[in-house]
């Protein structure tokens, strides 16, 4: 059935006909042209780059910096605080946005202006990433390339599973920190963007182990005593490639230096989009995190494979 649907979609594109895409809300959106795209969401911009249509991006949200050429495009605001006037000024034919994008009145204003707005599924799961890839690929007429990306993702996950199966010993205890304030230690638990990558990489959340399932949702400030009580073997932190970062600053966060990870200097820093974006690279990101946790020692910096300054 999927092959028939893909064949019909490709035929429509070949005939230059509009494409109909079902978005994250279940809305059927008619995409009349994908020649001028506003990309809202770092993972969406990543996918567009890999689909070979980065040259169609006329504007992007603040969080998009991959592929590198999108940084030179106009910034239309944070994904949840979009500026309708800034978007319309670029004369877009299509807005591709993560499902949490908004505010809703801005999206409605764009629709009333005749712009096709596709809210892309953004579930932080492997199947969610596949849906994201396929939705973006369908909207821009690159279905075959989209399936290539899905197959590449599956190959990365197969390599990861092979490593997990042969590894011996208990799962490593990983504490996911968000170093936004040097005076407080923000710990990220369930529902935090990127938290699922720890389990996918074959490790366990240290805070979940101590505090219990659901005790920490999102990123919250914990006391130094609570951080020490989590007894993490590895500290995981995101870094922003356009901002200064130091491992020493992480060690100075309250409680971190007194943990097993702090004493051993076991800190893994990952590019923020690579860690939390759940784009086409999620399989490779989990594989890289697994290697950093189980096959390396000391401080490890993991950049995004597609980032170029």
Any overview of this molecule?
It comes from Thermus aquaticus. There is one protein chain. By secondary structure, this protein is α/β, with parallel strands linked by helices. The chain folds into two domains: 2-154, Rossmann fold, CATH 3.40.50.1980; 167-302, Rossmann fold (3-Layer(aba) Sandwich), CATH 3.40.50.1980. It is 39% helix and 17% strand. The chain is built from 13 helices and 13 strands. Helix 5 runs antiparallel to helix 6 and helix 6 (143-166) packs parallel to helix 13. It is globular and about 60 Å long. The chain starts with a helix and ends in a 7-residue tail after the last strand.
- What can be said about the biggest beta sheet? 5 strands, parallel
Radius of gyration: 20 Å
For the record, the count of structural domains works out to: 2
| CATH homologous superfamily (4th level) name of the largest domain | Nitrogenase molybdenum iron protein domain
User: Under CATH, the topology of the largest domain is which?
Assistant: Rossmann fold
Q: Helicity range of the residues?
A: 25-40%
Mean pLDDT: 90
CATH level 1 name of the largest domain = Alpha Beta
The helix/strand series, from N terminus to C terminus, equals HEEEHEHEHEHHEEHEHEHEHHEHHE
Uncertain runs:
10-15
* CATH A-level architecture of the largest domain: 3-Layer(aba) Sandwich
Oligomeric status of the shown chains? single chain
Distance between the termini: 43 Å
Strand element count:
13
Number of helices: 13
Give the overall shape. globular
Strands of the widest sheet, in order across it, are 9-7-11-12-13
């Amino acid at each position: 059935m999927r092959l028939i649907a893909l064949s019909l979609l490709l035929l429509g594109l070949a005939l230059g006909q509009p494409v109909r895409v079902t978005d994250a809300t279940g809305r059927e959106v008619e995409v009349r042209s994908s020649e001028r795209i506003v990309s809202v969401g770092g993972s969406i911009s990543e996918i567009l780059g890999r689909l070979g249509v980065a040259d169609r991006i006329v504007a992007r949200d603040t969080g998009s910096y991959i592929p590198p050429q999108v940084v030179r495009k106009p910034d239309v605001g944070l994904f949840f605080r979009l500026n309708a006037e800034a978007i319309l000024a670029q004369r877009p034919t299509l807005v591709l946005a993560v499902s949490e994008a908004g505010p809703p009145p801005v999206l409605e204003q764009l629709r009333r202006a005749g712009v096709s707005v596709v809210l892309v599924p953004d579930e932080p799961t492997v199947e969610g990433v596949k849906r994201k890839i396929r939705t973006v690929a369908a909207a821009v007429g690159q279905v075959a390339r989209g399936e290539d990306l899905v197959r590449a993702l599956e190959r990365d996950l197969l390599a990861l599973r092979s490593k997990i199966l042969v590894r011996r010993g208990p799962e490593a205890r990983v504490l996911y920190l968000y170093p936004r304030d040097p005076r407080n230690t923000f710990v990220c638990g369930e529902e935090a963007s990127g938290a699922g990558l720890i389990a996918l990489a074959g490790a366990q959340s240290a805070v979940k182990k101590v505090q219990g399932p659901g005790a920490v949702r999102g990123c919250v400030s914990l006391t130094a005593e609570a951080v020490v009580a989590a007894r993490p073997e590895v500290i995981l932190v995101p870094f922003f490639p356009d901002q200064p970062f130091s491992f020493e600053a992480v060690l100075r966060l309250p409680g971190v230096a007194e943990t097993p990870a702090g004493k051993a200097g076991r800190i893994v820093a990952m590019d923020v989009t690579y860690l939390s974006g759940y784009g086409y690279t999620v399989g490779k990101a989990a594989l890289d995190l697994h290697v950093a946790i189980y096959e390396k020692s000391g401080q490890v910096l993991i950049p995004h494979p597609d980032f170029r300054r």
